[in-house]
Each structure stands twice: as structure tokens, then as C-alpha cells.
Amino acid sequence: MCLGIPGQIIEITDSENQLALVEVSGVKREVNVACVVETGQPVESCIGYWALIHVGFAMSRIDEEEAKKTLAILEELGEVQEELEAMHKSQESLRV
């Protein structure tokens, strides 16, 4: 199943292309943050934001409390591990 999973933007890796490093439960992955950068603000302004991550994109901003509640529910349902494994595999394929 593919779903949006909460992650925190921790570093900008390519300002021009609006790419950032996001951490999801200890797994780090580069994603596009164009959808969550506020109009008129530099891409660096989104460091620290929590967002729903889906197929390599930060789709929408969420607050930290909502992110933690969502992660807890997904963990209870057993969905987090599957998504983290998929993220990890996709990151490894980029290194090849």
C-alpha cells in the first residue's frame, strides 16, 4: 500500500530544485518540497516543517502533534514498517 507518511524536513539538499532531506522514524530520504514552501519564502524556510511524504514529494504541511499521532496510528496498524522499507529500498536504488 502506498500512503502519505509524516516526516520532518531536516536539511535542504538542492535549493534550485527544491529538494530536501526528510526524516521519517529514523529513515532519511531526499524529497521534493515544492508543495510545502510558502510563496515568497526561500526553500530553506521549510527546515523543521512536518509534512506528509508520498512518492518522493512533501505533499502538505502538518503540525508536529498531528504527525506524531499519525505515526502512532500507522505503527499500530503495521503500516509504518512497510513504508519505511519501501523508502529505504528506493534510496538504495539511487546509490547504484
What are the defining features of this structure?
Hydgase_assmbl_chp_CS, iron ion binding, SH3 type barrels, carbon dioxide binding, single chain, Hydrogenase-2 operon protein HybG, 34% strand, 96 residues, 5-stranded antiparallel beta sheet
Largest sheet: 5 strands, antiparallel
**What are the low-pLDDT stretches, counting only 5+ consecutive residues below 50?**
none
CATH architecture: Roll
Count of separate DSSP helical elements: 2
Instruction: Identify the CATH class.
Output: Mainly Beta
**SSE series:** EEEEEHH
Spatial order of the strands in the main sheet?
Answer: 3-2-1-4-5
The percent of residues in helical segments reads: 25-40%
CA radius of gyration is: 13 Å
The number of distinct β-strands equals 5
Mean pLDDT: 86
* Domain count: 1
> Might you state the CATH topology name?
SH3 type barrels
Alpha-beta content class:
alpha+beta
End-to-end CA span:
25 Å
Shape: globular
> In percent, how much strand structure appears in the residues?
25-35%
Protein name: Hydrogenase-2 operon protein HybG
InterPro entries: Hydgase_assmbl_chp_CS, Hydrogenase_HupF/HypC
Organism: Hydrogenovibrio crunogenus
GO molecular function: carbon dioxide binding; iron ion binding
